[in-house]
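Researcher: Quick test of sequence recovery. Tokens follow.
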């Protein structure tokens, strides 16, 4: 990712200069042309090789984007001009990546470019949903209200993601620690015990299995280490493909205990995003196209896309969602009532609040359930290794007694 300066001619015939981030010069040109501008010149901003070598691009989190949206809404509501507000926020933000991007956006807006077009140049920070909402606010003259809605949407999305992360972090940490302990015992401790076993004594089956596994881990590392690394790489590559992502997202819904949690979280994100878009004045079809991927699940996104196609043909939204089999009857009934009564946005908000509360309650319950299960699993692993090591000693002592 590099920084490029550009010179363009906007729709009114004025010459505009600004900066944008892009991976390559042709990508910057393509983005500008997609925005409807005539590109005059695009040049990379030259930086020293030392700075390029050690510069680390910090990611902009959802919380930081939510805070920026709320602060910008407050400043605009107070009568501060947009350009001045953007320059002020660029100086006070603690994230250097966001600070530089806001400074570039402020300069672009100052040069005559629209805010939504300026944000569109940074898709890694401002998603399509965000840009579309800002464009609707610019057209309707409700930018402050749109920014407040976006801030609330991002805050709730962050809370939802944090709930799921907190439920999954504990078992990951415990299982990682247990794996490390087992590896250390198998590689370093088991061989020490094995030296004390007489060569002419028949070892119990659990001990023989344990020693064979220990020997493979110690002497066959050139096999299992590359195999493990290759497996992880293959899994990550598979997830990046549409087919692999679709399979994984469908599998997550079928996992025991946590499958319903993933489904409720995806539905909560979808309904919350759709309500925000509709309340912001985005047309239904465009809102569905944006709200589906915002659910974070490819299976849900494809079902919503198919529902949008049927809505375009003149059908209602509730029927196609129910036909997909992915949405509970409560969701489809709320959508149907909302379509009939003209209060779809309000009922979508109520649905989102219900499922967000469900996710919070489920994460607390799973945390309480997973803790003792993990303790039992770790105890069985470590205890099994210890018992397998002491079995020959017990057998030898018993034989002496006879």
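Model:
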């Amino acid at each position: 990712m590099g920084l490029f300066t550009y010179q363009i001619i906007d729709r009114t015939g004025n010459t505009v200069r600004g900066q944008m981030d892009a991976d390559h010069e042709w990508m910057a040109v393509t983005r500008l042309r997609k925005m409807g501008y005539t590109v005059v010149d695009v040049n990379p901003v030259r930086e020293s090789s030392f700075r390029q070598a050690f510069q680390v691009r910090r990611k902009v989190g959802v919380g930081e984007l939510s805070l920026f949206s709320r602060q910008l809404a407050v400043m605009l509501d107070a009568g501060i001009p947009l350009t001045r507000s953007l320059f002020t926020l660029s100086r006070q933000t603690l994230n250097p990546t966001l600070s530089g991007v806001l400074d570039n956006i402020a300069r672009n807006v100052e040069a005559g470019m629209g805010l939504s077009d300026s944000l569109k140049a940074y898709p890694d920070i401002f998603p399509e949903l965000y840009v579309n909402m800002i464009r609707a606010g610019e057209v309707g003259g409700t930018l402050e209200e749109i920014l407040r809605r976006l801030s609330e949407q991002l805050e709730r999305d962050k809370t939802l993601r944090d709930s799921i992360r907190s439920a999954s972090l504990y078992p990951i940490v415990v299982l990682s620690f247990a794996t490390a302990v087992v590896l250390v015992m198998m590689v370093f401790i088991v061989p020490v015990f094995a030296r004390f076993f007489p060569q002419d004594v028949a070892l119990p089956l659990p001990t023989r299995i344990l020693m064979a596994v220990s020997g493979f881990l110690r002497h066959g590392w050139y096999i299992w280490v590359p195999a493990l690394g290759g497996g992880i790489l293959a899994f990550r590559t598979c997830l990046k493909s549409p087919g692999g992502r679709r399979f994984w997202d469908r599998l997550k819904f079928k996992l025991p205990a946590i499958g319903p949690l993933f489904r409720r979280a995806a539905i909560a994100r979808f309904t919350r995003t759709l309500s925000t878009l509709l309340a912001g004045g985005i047309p239904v079809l465009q809102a569905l196209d944006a709200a589906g991927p915002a659910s974070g699940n490819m299976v849900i996104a494809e079902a919503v896309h198919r529902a949008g196609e049927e809505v375009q043909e003149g059908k209602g939204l509730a029927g196609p969602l129910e036909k997909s089999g992915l949405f509970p009857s409560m969701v489809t009934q709320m959508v149907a009532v909302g379509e009939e009564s003209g209060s779809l946005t309000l009922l979508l908000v109520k649905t989102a609040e219900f499922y967000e509360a469900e996710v919070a309650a489920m994460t607390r319950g799973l945390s309480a359930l997973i803790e003792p299960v993990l303790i039992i699993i770790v105890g069985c692993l470590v205890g099994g290794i210890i018992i397998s090591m002491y079995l020959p000693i017990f057998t030898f002592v018993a034989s002496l007694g006879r």
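Residues 48-56 have pLDDT under 50 and may be disordered.
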